[in-house]
Amino acid sequence: MTDIHQILRHYWGFNSFRPLQKEVIESVMQGNDTLTLMPTGGGKSLCYQVPALAKEGMCLVVSPLIALMKDQVENIRKKGITAFAIFSGMKRKEIVNALKVSANSNCKFLYVSPERLETALFREYLPGMDINLIAVDEAHCISQWGYDFRPSYLKIATIREELPDIPILALTASATPEVQKDICEKLQFRNVSKIPAATPAIPGRKDSPSPKIFRQSFERPNLLYSAFRVDSKINKIIEILTKVAGSSIIYCKSRRRTREISELLQLQNISSDFYHAGLIQDERNRKQEDWINNKTRVIVCTNAFGMGIDKPDVRTVIHADAPDCLENYYQEAGRAGRDGRKAFAVLLYDENDLQELEALTEQRYPSFEDIKNVYQAVSNYLQIPAGSGEGESYNFDIADFIKKFKLNSHTVLYSLKALEQDGWLAFNEQVFIPSTVQFIAGKAELNEFEKIHSELDIAIKSLLRAYEGIFDQEVPISEWVLTGLMKKNTEEVKEQLKQLHRYGIILYRPQKDSPQLFLLRNRIKTEDLTINMSAYNLRKENFRLRCKEMIRYINEKADCRSQMIASYFGDHSLNRCGVCDNCLRLRSVQLSKEEFEMINHQIISTISPGPLHTKDLLLRLNGIKKEKAWKVIEFLQAESKIKMDKDGFVSVQ
Ligand code: ADP
Ligand code: MG
C-alpha cells in the first residue's frame, strides 16, 4: 500500500487529513528535511507514521518521553504493525533482543530515547537496519535556547551522518523563531540556505531535497484568554466552574495543591479528581479515563497531565498558579476548545506568583558549588566508585536522597538538570518500567494446563490475544488493559498473572515505578567536575527572558493576548482576537490601546508623589474626557494598582 489516503483509512479509519498533515507527509515523501510546528493533539504522529508505512523499511523515532513512547508502540501494535521501543531502564538483554528483532523482522517503527542513540549497542545494529525516515519528536529539546534542552538530542546529528540520504522530520508543538532555526541547524537539515523565511504551508516541489517548515496558525478564535489577579484563587475557580459548564482542567504548581483544590471543589459538589506524576500508573490511567469519559468533570493536575490526551470538549483550562513560560502556557491552555466551540483559558495569579517568577531564574540555575555538592552526594548515595558507572542505570529514590543528605529539593533537581545538560547523567523521574510477560510453557503444555485450570483460561487467552510475540520474548503488558479483556479488576488480574507465574506457565515481572538515574559518563572525582559555564549562563539569561515574557503576559492590560502569544512564536500576522479580557476591556471603555495606556500612565504619574483627591486628579488630567478617565480609574482600582480611601483620596497601591 503506497497511497497515503488509503493508508490513513486502512490503519486509522480516518477519512481525511487534519490541517497540514498532508503537506507534511508529501514533503517527507519527496525526501525533504521537514520541520513541523503543530499544537499538542494536532496529529503530529501521523505525519511520520503514514510516510513510513508508505515506504519500504522502517522509521526511527526519537522521543524523550518514555511513557508516551510506550503508548505509541502499544497503539501501533494494535493495528497489526510491528514496532519496538528502546529506552533507559531496559536491561541489556532486552535491548539486544529488541534491536535484533527489529533489524530482522518487518519492523516499521523503532522508538528510541535519545540517550540510547549513542550507545555502542545501538551503533552496532544501526547499519543492519533499513531506515526510511528519522522522526524527531519534541524537536525543541535539541535547542539550547529551548525551554527543555536535552543534550542527548544533539546525538541525533551523528545518526544523520551515518544515514546521509535519509530525510528527517522534526516535530514540535511550539518553538520560538530562534529555536526553529536552531532545530534546522542542529539536525543538519540539508540545503539550509533554501529555508524560506516566513513559512505557512509551502507547497512541496519535486526537485532536490530542500528543507521545509510547516507551521500551524497560532490563531484559536474560539479560545478566550484572560488573566485575573485574585485574592482567593479557590473562590474564583468555583465562580468560573459555576458560570461555565463542561469539562475542565485546572493546572497547579505542586502535587499537594492538586489534591487540596480537588477536595475543596468536591466540598462544593463539583465533580473533580486530582492527578500528578507521583501516583502509580494504574491510578493515573483510571483518573485519566474517568475524566475523558466525563465521569469526572474537573481534573486538577500538575503539568504531568495532558500529554497525548486529545479530549475535544474541554470548556475551561484554568491555571491556578502562573506557569513558568509561554511555551507551557500555550500548550496547556490550548487543550481547551479543540472541538472549535467557545472555551476559556483563564490564568489566576497573585503577588506571590509574580515574585516567584522573578525569583525563578536563580532557583532553576544553581551555582557551580551547589552542582558539585549534589554530584558528590549522588555518587555517595548510589555508591559509585570513581572511574566507573558509564552506561549504568540506577534506581534513584530522590526523596530519600534529599532527606538523607539534608539538601534543598530545588537545588537537587536543578543541579541534576545542569549535570544532565552537560552530558554527565540523565535523571528521569517518570520512568515507569511496565510489567512484562513471556510464555515459558510450550503450546502443548499450555493446552494441557488450560484443560485442568479452566479458571485461568481467560487470562491466558487474553494475553495471547492482546500481545503478539509473547512466546518469543518478554513483552510489556498492562494489567489495566487486561482488566477490560478479562472483565476483572486490576487486583484480580495481577493475582491470576501471579498464579500463572507460580505454575511456570508464564514469566511475570510486575511493574516498577521507580525514578532512574542513568550515568552517561564514568563518575569522576568531584574536584575534576567541569560544567561549560558560558553555555550555562547563556541558558540562564535566556530563561530569565522567558520569565520576563511570562510576567509581561500576566501584567499586560491592553495588548491582545492571542497576538502576544502568536508573536512570541514568531507569527505576527494575527489581528486582535476581540474576545480576550484585554480586547473586551478596551472595547467596553471605548478606548483605543494608545488612549488607555496614555491615561493609565498619566494617572499613575499624577498620584505617584502622594494621595490626591479624585476631584483634583480629574482636574489635572486635563484634555481627557471625564468618563474615559473614570473607566481607567475604576479599572486600576479593580486591579489593585491604585486605591481610593473613604474620603475619595486616590493613591498608588
Ligand atoms: P500530537 O503528537 O500532535 O500531540 P497525536 O499524533 O498524538 O498528536 O494525535 C492526537 C490525536 O488526533 C490522536 O488521537 C489521533 O488519532 C488523532 N488524529 C490524528 N490525525 C487525525 C486525522 N487525520 N483524523 C482524525 N483524527 C486524527
Ligand atoms: Mg506527539
What this model shows, in words?
With 653 residues, this protein is α/β, with parallel strands linked by helices. The protein has five domains: 4-215, P-loop containing nucleotide triphosphate hydrolases (Rossmann fold, 3-Layer(aba) Sandwich), CATH 3.40.50.300; 223-349, P-loop containing nucleotide triphosphate hydrolases (Rossmann fold, 3-Layer(aba) Sandwich), CATH 3.40.50; 358-423 and 516-542, Arc Repressor Mutant, subunit A, CATH 1.10.10; 436-509; 589-652, Arc Repressor Mutant, subunit A (Orthogonal Bundle), CATH 1.10.10.10. The strands form five sheets. The chain has a seven-stranded parallel beta sheet, with helices on both faces. Strands 8-13-12-9-11-10 form a six-stranded parallel beta sheet, with helices on both faces. α19 packs across α20 (490-502). Residues 196-207 have low confidence and may be disordered. It binds adenosine-5'-diphosphate and magnesium ion (MG). Magnesium ion is lined by residues 44-45, 137.
